[in-house]
Structures are given as structure tokens and as C-alpha cells.
Design a protein that fits this description.
Distance between the termini: 59 Å
Number of strands: 10
Largest sheet: 5 strands, antiparallel
Strand order of the largest sheet: 1-2-3-4-5
Low-confidence stretches: none
Number of helices: 4
Structural class: alpha+beta
Shape: elongated
Mean pLDDT: 87
Order of helices and strands: HEEEEEHHEEEEHE
Length: about 160
């Protein structure tokens, strides 16, 4: 495992990162030219050698809920590679999903769904979520229309001929 000082000297070889000392002797490094919302590349590098690097480019299961990955046991090469990839990711403009296209493509899913025993559920898009209602009661909430459709089909529901409510 690299020491705090070794990690610090590696990180400081990236001139595009700006050091910011934070509490408890920890250090953050910001990438001010980021075109993404995120600016912090290295977070809470601690004198005990623990710390986190933003890894928005990696699969979610490898990162924490904020998109960071623990670098405690990283080698010099692994740390350099991760920081380079993080900076490259933060340098790319975010991919904008054409909301109108998505709405048109998945609008067909909104409406009433009928179960095997004739029970009715409604699928409604509200803000960025796809909500499943039983009457006025919220049953489930999904981030994507595909997840919502899969849930309804798995539960034995089929789309009714009645469309939007």
C-alpha cells in the first residue's frame, strides 16, 4: 500500500488538479475545468493512506453511491490510471438524452395495466420517475421505463387497451 506522502506526490503530478486542504488533515483535489457537474477528482485523501477518486466512468457496482472508489490499496500505476480516466471523463460533456425522443418512445407504457385477477395498476411518468399506482396508492417507483415495464410483466400484468389516464 502506498503511503499518504506517496499518493500525494503522485496526485500532484497532475497539474490540472487543484489541491484543497480539508478537515482532519485530509486533502481534496479539484478539477476546475470539468465540464461535468462534478469537480472533485480526489476526495478525503487521509494521512492514514485512505482516500477516494471519482470514477463516474466505471460501473456503479464498483463505486460508492456518489461515484467514488476507494484507493487505499491502489498501486502507483493503478492510481495514475484511475486519475487519468477520471479527468478524461470529467472533460467530456455529459451525454444529453433527448427527453422528447424518450417520452415518445416510452409514452406507450403509460396507462392502465391489468393483472391476472383483473386488478388494475397505473403506470405514470412523474418528473424523472416511473411510478406504479394502485388507485391513489404508490406501489413502486422506478428510474427507467424499462424497469417499470419489466416489473409489471413479471407480476403478471398486461397493458390495457385504455391508455393514459
Amino acid at each position: 500500500m502506498l503511503t499518504f506522502e506517496e499518493k500525494l506526490s503522485i496526485i500532484e503530478t497532475f497539474p490540472e488538479l487543484q489541491r484543497k486542504d480539508v478537515s482532519l488533515g485530509r486533502v481534496n483535489f479539484h478539477y476546475l475545468e470539468s465540464v461535468q457537474e462534478k469537480k472533485i477528482v480526489v476526495q478525503h485523501l487521509h494521512p492514514n493512506g485512505n482516500g477516494f477518486v471519482y470514477a463516474g466512468h466505471m460501473r456503479k457496482k464498483e463505486t460508492d453511491r456518489k461515484g467514488f472508489i476507494n484507493i487505499r490499496d491502489y498501486t502507483e500505476e493503478e492510481l495514475k490510471d484511475l486519475i487519468q480516466k477520471s479527468i478524461a471523463y470529467l472533460s467530456e460533456p455529459p451525454v444529453e438524452i433527448e427527453e422528447e425522443e424518450e417520452e415518445n418512445e416510452f409514452a406507450r407504457l403509460e396507462g392502465t395495466w391489468i393483472g391476472l385477477e383483473k386488478q388494475e395498476l397505473s403506470l405514470v411518468r412523474e418528473d424523472q420517475l416511473w411510478n406504479v399506482y394502485s388507485g391513489s396508492n404508490l406501489e413502486e417507483c422506478f428510474e427507467s421505463p424499462i424497469e417499470a415495464e419489466r416489473y409489471l410483466l413479471d407480476e403478471g400484468f398486461r397493458q390495457s387497451k385504455k391508455r393514459k389516464m
